[in-house]
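EI: anyone free to look at a 121-residue chain?
SC: sure, send it
EI:
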Amino acid sequence: MPRDAEQGAYAAARAFHALPLAAKQACAMDVPVAGRPPGVGFLGDANAKLPARDKPNMNAAFVVKREVGPRDVTLDKMPWPRGGDDGFDAAAFRAAVERYCAEMERLARAMLPLYAVALDL
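SC: here you go
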């Protein structure tokens, strides 16, 4: 993976998590929105999801998924954060996350044949 894609993702994550809680909650995973796939968006700390468990998470996250198939989870359906007077660059955040996702998908596709050989498939 290109180093700048990795660094861009870390910088985007820092910028997102520096936002006020209200701004992050605007794209919370638990807010039902028509067309939004389940399990994506902001997931605050002290929750017991992903996976469901008795002991809550100790950190917050912005969960991104892409799933081809019946659920049709795409990056276009993500609850992307919006920019505002707080100086957050929403377009740069999305671009960095999408680039990181593309690089991770490229890596996964490159490794898939290795896994197939290892599993004798």
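EI: The chain has a mean pLDDT of 88.
SC: 👍
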